[in-house]
Amino acid sequence: MRGALLARRDEIAAARISGNDDSVRVFNFSAGPAQLPLPVLEQAASELTSWGGSGMSVLEVSHRGADFVACAADAEATLRRLLSIPKNYRVLFLQGGASAQFAGIPLNLTAPGDTVAYLNTGQWSAKAIKQAGAYELDVVVPADEAASSYTATPEPGSFTVPEGARYLHYTPNETIGGVEFDYVPDSGGVPLVADFSSTILSRPIDVSRYGLIYAGAQKNMGPSGLAVIIVREDLLGRARPVTPTVLDYQKMADADSMLNTPPTFAIYLLGLIGHWIEDDGGLEAMAERNRAKAELLYGFIDSSDFYANPVQKRSRSWMNVPFTLADPALDADFLAGAQAAGLTNLKGHRSVGGMRASIYNAMPIEGVRALIDYMTDFAARA
């Protein structure tokens, strides 16, 4: 194990000294923008100067040209197949990432004075709650995990959604705290709205249980800047008159997400990633691999006296694994050594400290094993 680790360090060091470090791929544990599948990057690179024999890159073609319209339609069709999206749902490709939808959702689904409900399990749900408060709404928080320092999710059945609420919003996975719901909350019959930014395409989802799903692309779907909205048709056409056109779901649906210039390169990459997932066995196979990676890393942490994970076991994320060292004074040395070993972006979010390993779809199990090898070696030397 130590021999393999030292060999990898030597390979990376030699490449950097020789100036050939562009050929060495690191294991990138960033929470987002995240590591992308190498086959997808290689295909995009091969097509970058001449996409489809056009003599232009996909970055340069008109979004209204027949070729790109077909590209966007293929990306949507692939996403529909992967997620088994029912016919009565529209798929929108919008700009601004998921954060823009913190405003887009109340603007599209409420009127001033309405009641909305939010479950607070971390910093992303807290940001959504704060934004909703800007729109003259009665914002109710039936469950709030701030007291647990966002290390748990509410117990099933422990909260009640207010009668007459326009929707219940929750964040299935919180990237910062590494907290994940292991169940779909009971919305009490009101539309369930979910920020799936960090778990979409990591496993199957029953889309029919949701009124609206939204997700930023930069974890499992592509580069930053793109937000995918999956919305049930009966929730369209309700936008407030003041809603910006580019956030009006009905208007964007009517224009096939091309009311303005869409994030074309991100849509193109989304399509490639969708095909990569299909070729690799679909979401069922992806779920098996993601479960195996998470169980391997958590199992190592739990067996160690040197590392610890603060999250309630039932609520542990498959995608984002925070951990601490026995002595925080060693954090800087740990990160420097990891960087030298080709294990990057392991520093925890500034608000919680420690470490965080994000192991999205594109992270192979070999990356998790390499991390465990390094963690074992570091603990033995500390």
Report on the architecture of this protein.
- Pathway: Cofactor biosynthesis; pyridoxine 5'-phosphate biosynthesis; pyridoxine 5'-phosphate from D-erythrose 4-phosphate: step 3/5; Amino-acid biosynthesis; L-serine biosynthesis; L-serine from 3-phospho-D-glycerate: step 2/3.
- Its EC number is 2.6.1.52.
- It comes from Actinomyces johnsonii F0542.
- One of its GO terms (biological process) is pyridoxine biosynthetic process.
- The protein is an alpha/beta fold.
- The chain has two domains: 214 residues, 3-Layer(aba) Sandwich (Aspartate Aminotransferase, domain 2), CATH 3.40.640.10; 101 residues, Aspartate Aminotransferase, domain 1.
- It contains ten helices and 14 strands.
- Strands 2-10-9-8-5-3-4 form a seven-stranded mixed beta sheet. The protein has a three-stranded antiparallel beta sheet with strand order 11-12-14, with helices on one face. A two-stranded parallel sheet has the order 1-13.
- The longest helix is centred in the last third of the chain and has 21 residues.
- The mean pLDDT is 93.
